[in-house]
Design brief:
Blueprint lengths: L1 H19 L7 H22 L14 E2 L2 E2 L1 H26 L1
Antiparallel strand pairs: 1-2
């Protein structure tokens, strides 16, 4: 269930990137993505192992990175795609106006 919702977020995030950001800036995304995914892995595992957050095993794919379900990482990927895309777009609009 979470996986299907997350795939919609990723599709939207990729659309934002493809539509709003010039191709010449796409190389910055992996540079931002790698540390963000590492931080997500560390902090998600900590909050799960401390019992702060839990997941219904019937709603996750079962693919785990440590104690964290892979679905948790989709939010990070979506944020890393959407936030700079919108920021870049708005910056270009400001320069035009």
């Amino acid at each position: 269930m979470y996986l299907s919702v997350n795939l919609n977020f990723i599709a939207f995030a990729l659309a934002c990137m493809f539509i709003l950001v010039p191709r010449t800036r796409w190389g910055a995304y992996p540079i931002a993505m790698i540390p963000m995914l590492i931080l997500t892995a560390v902090f998600d595992n900590v909050i799960i192992l401390c019992g702060i957050v839990g997941y219904d095993s019937s709603k996750i794919s079962g693919i785990m990175i440590g104690a964290a379900p892979i679905e948790d990482f989709f939010y990070t990927v979506a944020a890393v795609l959407i936030v700079p895309s919108v920021y870049t777009f708005l910056g270009r609009q400001k320069l035009k106006g």
